[in-house]
Amino acid sequence: MAAVLESLLREEVSVAAAVRWIARSAQSSEEDAGEAAALRSLQPLRKEFVPFLLNFLREQSSRVVPQGPPTPAKAPGSSAALPGRPGGPPRGGRGARSQLFPPTESLSAAAEAPSARRGGRRRGAGPARERGGRGPGSLEEGVGAESLLWAGSRRPRAAGSPGSPSRARCDPPNLSNLEEFPPVGSVPPGGAGTRPSRRINPTPVSEERSLSKPKTCFTSPPISCVPGAQPSVLDSSPWGQGPAAGCRSLQEEREMLRKERSKQLQHSPVPACPTPEPGSTLPTRTGSLTAEPADPAKVSSRQRLELVALVYSACIAENLVPNLFLELFFVLQLLTARRMVAAKDSDLEPSPGVLDSLESPLFQSVHDCVFFAVQVLEHQFQVLSYLDKGTLKLLAENERLLCFSPALQGRLRAAYAGSVAKVSLAMPPSVQAVSFQPETDNRANFSSDRAFHTFKKQRDVFYEVLREWEDRHEEPGWDFEKGLGSRISFQFNQHLMDSLSLKIRELNSLVLPHPEPSDEDGESDVDWQGERRQFAVVLLSLRLLAKFLGFVAFLPYRGPEPPPARELQDSILALRSQVPPVLDVRALLQQGLRAHRAVLTVPWLVEFLSLADHIVPMLDYYRSIFTLLLHLHRSLVLSKDGEGEMCFLNKLLLLAVLGWLFQIPTVPEDLFFVEEGQVDVFEVDTKTSEHGLDGVPVVDQHLLYTCCPYIGELRKLLASWVSGSSGRSGGFVRKITPTTTTSLGALPLRTTQGLQAQLAQAFFHNQPPSLRRTVEFVAERIGSNCVKHIKATLVADLVRQAESLLQEQLVTQRQEGGDPGQLLEILCSQLCPHGAQALTQGREFCQKKSPGAVRALLPEETPAAVLSSAENIAVGLATEKACAWLSANITALIRREVKAAVSRMLRAQGPEPAVRGDRRGCSRACEHHAPLPSHLISEIKDVLSVAVGPRDPEEGVSPEHLEQLLGQLGQTLRCRQFLCPPAEQHLAKCSVELASLLVADQIPVLGPPTQHRLERGQARRLLHMLLSLWKDDFQVPVPLQLLLSPRNVGLLADTRPREWDLLLFLLRELVEKGLMGRKEIEACLDSLHEAQWPEDFAEELATLFNLFLAEPQVPEPQLRACELVQPNRGTVLAQS
Amino acid sequence: MILTKAQYDEIAQCLVSVPPTRQSLRKLKQRFPRLVWESWEDFRMRSSSSRRYRAEPGASSRRSEHISSQSQATLLSIFSQEYQKHIKRTHAKHHTSEAIESYYQRYLDGVGKNGAAPVLLELANEVDYAPSLMARIILERFLQEHKETPPSKSVINSLLRDPSQIPDGVLANQVYQCIVNDCCYGPLVDCIKHAIGHEHEILLRDLLLEKNLSFLDEDQLRAKGYDKTPDFILQVPVAVEGHIIHWIESKASFGDECSHHAYLHDQFWSYWNRFGPGLVIYWYGFIQELDCNRERGILLKACFPTDIVTLCHGAAAP
User: Please, which residues 115-144 of chain B have a Cβ atom closer than 8 Å to chain A?
Assistant: First the structure.
């Protein structure tokens, strides 16, 4: 491998050709014969090149004292076991390594193969995996200890194949440096790809995890901070204590190391980390570690650095490295290197004649590091330009970068100015409670009723099981397995898996709207934001669901680590291959790729696969998925741009998640660098079709950072460079950095700003932590309140304006005839510009509210100067928060609210409000004493049932009771407090039934001496009461036509003698009161003829009909009088 | 009216095989004067205790009188629930095709002899089935015979709501008779039950307003997209008899074992799962032993609580 690099350095081979050679197995015709020949001889080594290059760079940078996060959460006392103890090899991601992919053979050769170590690991203690890797069965794993493993990394077998001619020429391990000492067992040559090793595993997004452990997923840098700093978490591990036979050389190494180490400590005046030696008084890191200035003029071998940077960049660009962001982090560490640790004399000795070869160190000084880093960054500008605004700003303000490449700095500054990608690195708060959150648990957030129902059910099923356990688990003889086992070990999980699978399928196939590409005006952008948000919601939901599905699905297979021995594997594989996948993810992936929806499918698939057990990647089914993913990874070349290409940020997201996946401990290490010659893989086509989601810019920086929070580590690294050494806590503390204190307006001079940032930082630094929390809290709340306030005032005012404008428009439009959509556009174009006031008002609000809040929360005794600074910072932060939101969303908000108002008003144009306006409530003075509707329905029902019968001889109704009942009905209808429409409808219907019974004289009256019929006068009085209720009090339609239904008229047929006068009276009154029209009544009477009646009854009915028709259309007073003096006309009729 | 399980069982025993008619209820009221009387007392106590909190004593007493006139419905409520359990148990046997044919034949025979006689109602009482449900069976069977397509459920329901639309006059009368004589089933009873539930929610709302307890009601909650909606969620929790209450559910029925367990499963625990502990008011009382989940966050009351402790706002509060 080194040979390749050297041919490059000697310019025997062009970089382009080299990269082509690396990237593609087939030789390209573009290569000239000489190059081809040079490379052909190296052909067998092709796939080893990239791991070699990466390791080479790590190794070369081993003496760099990087800027970077310190060790998180150390186990107290554990450091005691470090270097002095034989057999306790220092390990852990940060302390001990200089290489990403250590050339293991040469190392172990030099170190005389610490076989005990290796053996120990192989024999199953697997402490690194157990502690550092994803532990089995825990969703929470992978943050704390594992986060150290960013640096730990994997060693591809390819890098360590024996017999490589370059081995001997490799730099020997830097024994002077503890980190150089490979802490983790080297890879046995030719072993199965399942060796445990430390991995980069920057676990992304997990709210649960963020609480349980410090969220430092990416903080272990590819370059370690200071030798020996790492207290080993493994010192109690079996292999750590077992000084196996044949370890003499190892102990020798330890001895050398110890010497080297103390020498080093003397060299570097300020050791960065607490001493590991118990009882030692070595200085601890107390102050700033000043950075050595970097000078472009002092770069040692420019040409060589340029070349390596070019090759390295090309590898990155071609996606030949497993994790793009890991490389960027490494490069930024070089950029921000504080100093170089003095190397052994021999290292510094120039070897004449081989200056341009690999014999001399690549990085001889900080100047070299920075030069190299800037070179690479120049090549990676495109990716950088898509990072969040905060990172861009820090990069643009980096003095070294300015110094080494003003051009790049200019481009970065321009990118920063144009960027809107504000991303907060703060993690969202963990959701632990089960309380219903209307914003998220809303039906509207579910694609279907079924999905919503499933969601509802889960919460309840869970608590049901929990309650049963609570109730029963203390009962003697109750057994968890027996009682609930079936529901948790199977039913519950199965239900969960089914639900999750269903939901994933649903969401994955959800049709997401595409914006019209031609729409570039701000208005359509508003909707587009909504759609992008929808995509983000869907994607994040899918990831969460897939993670849980993966967890549940692979849970039963998670066994002790390391994975089973090889003999066992075959039988396990045979068994496992029989088990159908819980969800056919391969088909979904293939569909996703074919439909150009990789941007949606791949991220959740990665989450799912990340929870797989060790066997999974060996199964044919999943192996093919990984192969597909590898091809996809390779094909996502960021620099390719043009028609039909996947959008840049979409690609970047996929690269980030895939890179993360390739670092998961369960994924075989050789997977990434494996030869790509899998025959059955269909070509991954990243060309997007017109309808594919991949071609739509659905991913923004916020989503990228949410899915891959470790990208934020780049910003933290740069921020810590700005703020100098991280002080006594020694860590990457989240600080108020210039990014958050800058105003929204034009940027002040960079230097001033940097100074301001440092001042703010310094200000908080010497204050109690509660001060910073208070200021941040106030800023957060006031900023949020400000937005609410603007909504309630400015936006509400605009909506009112819109309503009055609309009113005018509607008047004119009704004459001209217009389209409501157009109306909305007109209104919005008039009102949206007013949104600009929001920023001014927002600033005023924050200015007004923040200081008081800060004052109220800080102690009375806070010095005036401190108080006023705190107030000012709070105002600045609150303003920034509020204005950022407002400037991004105010137009959309106004538009949305106006739209809602317009549709409200347009709806109100319909007939509906007339009906509504008609409804009266009870009067203000009403004390709601009226009888309850239910009581009245029940009472009337009783009367009806007595009337209809059957009844006992003593049963009946008194006229007084009936009168009281109707009186109460009137009260109830006028009160309305307790009345609901269905009750009123039934009351109306019952009242009509009651009238029919009165007319037919069917109500048995109770009274002395016996049951008898109601007197005519009483009946008329009751009918009058009913008529007035119908006319004045009912607010629902009264089904008066029922009075003339065959059934009710038929009641008259049963009475002897038949009396028609009450019916005639009722009909006349209905007409007179305008309750029914004559025509309506005539129609009803007409239809009565169709029914089958006894002959005599039919005749009488016809007479009644004629009588009613004979009456004049407009009743005259004398006719009524005339009618009154002939009360018994009906009887006469009946008798005739 | 809170009954012990033993008391309740004793009452339930007496309700076995009693038809759901007006006459049966009258007899039951005579048999259990204590039940009716005590519930009166219950409501009187309620009104006197709540009067203290009301600016307008007249209003409260008037209102509780209305409720008290309903309180006799405690007995009806118990009877209705027991009867419904009975119907659920026996429902299937009345819906075999043999049973339907036999009922229909008996109906035809009966009205053939005398169309004015309460044929259908007596048939229902004889075979121990609810009159309204018997009316439905016969109506459905009738329509099957007279129409080519089997009648839809909504057609049947609409005919039961308005029997005058039934094409056959005799059947219309028979059906109507069944419906007005049925105390436990049928469109009228459904409406009464619905109205009672609604009225008690309104009453509870008024009481909450009187006590200055701010709340979100079911409609507001539904508009916000809540999947499970108690009648009221208190915006600021209160303590009732030492128990924290986040929500209140009004139940205008008697809380017997069967209905309470169903409610727990479908509603109360779901509320707890989302909103924390809460209060259920069974306005017509409940079985004492069911109030056993107080510690786990479900408190039962038969009236609006008087012992309410609200969050104090310190010395600064007025």
Answer: 116, 118, 121
